[in-house]
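We treat protein structure as text, and this decision shapes the records that our systems exchange. Because each token names a local backbone shape, the row as a whole describes the fold. An entry from our holdings is shown next, in its original layout:
>
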Amino acid sequence: MRTLDLSPLFRSSVGFDRLTRLMDAAQRVDEGQLAYPPYNIEQDGEDSYRITMAVAGFGEDELSITAQETQLVVAGKPSKDETPRTYLHRGIAGRAFERRFELADHIRVVGASLVNGLLHIELKREVPEAMKPRTIKIESAKGQPQVIENKAA
């Protein structure tokens, strides 16, 4: 495996600690963790996204979704079934899981739904007005610059 040294990039940068943590976490990912449960990440529009996870056998009360700052955690813990069963073939895993997603700045979880064994998590990018580009009028006389037009990024 090839190791990248990004220290030259961080010598003149401030506040990119999160990027370093993301790269470290990407190198430490366990292959078994990548396989269960399977998921898709879709872009529905310019600023909307959807994560779809296959969670067959889990009910709404057995799943939890937690969004905290830039991390989304989806966990599933099956309830204990008191009925003894004899399986001839067991292909539906039904084991506990915890899947973490790193979210970019200004991504907000809008909602979630469980339909036909698929958990859909809706995400939306909401850039604050202060961070959107704006046009500044240049004045030739002494005076304060004025914002004349707001434009979406």
About this structure: The first strand starts at residue 39 and ends at 43. The mean pLDDT is 81.
